[in-house]
Amino acid sequence: MAKFTIGKAVAVVAIAAAASFGMSACATPAPEPTETTIGGDIVAPIELNYQDIDGQTLELVVGQVVNINYGGINDGEVEVSISDPKVVEYSAAAYENDTQFSAGLLALSGGESTVTFTFAGEDPRELNIQVLLK
């Protein structure tokens, strides 16, 4: 039987502890928590069906978009007028390089604007936009 002395046991424990401490000193420190969220200031778009536009008011922040689904109505057959184009702009649906782009509104600056959609043979539909500064 092998004889172990207290000195040898202490030496083995000391070597193991030193190795463990040395390994942990080389480990990458945990990252500091941050206050920002993933995505930063990105605001989700609002999805809106043309048939649902009925004088309601949407609150947007600068840079936010409203995607408009015409549901089979040809976008070219809808006339859009904006009371204050400094507040919001309209982009018609488009098809470019095999990619379909939806019609939509983009909030440009703080303020209020009324967007009027007129489709041949129908009464105009109004959408009130309030754009808030971030």
List keywords for this structure.
1 helix; single chain; four-stranded mixed β-sheet; alpha+beta; elongated; Immunoglobulin-like; 134 residues
Secondary structure elements and their pairing?
Layout: H1 6-26, E1 46-49, E2 57-61, E3 65-69, E4 78-82, E5 88-91, E6 94-96, E7 99-101, E8 103-107, E9 111-119, E10 125-132
Parallel strand pairs: 1-3, 2-10
Antiparallel strand pairs: 3-8, 4-9, 5-8, 6-7, 9-10
Notes on the protein architecture:
This protein is α+β, with helices and mostly antiparallel strands. Helices cover 16% and strands 38% of the residues. The strands form three sheets. It has a four-stranded mixed sheet with strand order 1-3-8-5, with no helix packed on it. Strands 2-10-9-4 form a four-stranded mixed sheet, with no helix packed on it. The chain has a two-stranded antiparallel sheet with strand order 6-7. It has a domain at 46-132: Immunoglobulin-like. The model has no long low-confidence stretch (mean pLDDT 81). The protein is built from one helix and ten strands. The longest helix is centred in the N-terminal third of the chain and has 21 residues, at 6-26.
Summarize the structure.
The protein is of the alpha+beta class and 134 residues long. It has 1 helix and 10 strands; from the N terminus they run αββββββββββ. The longest helix is centred in the first third of the chain and has 21 residues, at 6-26.
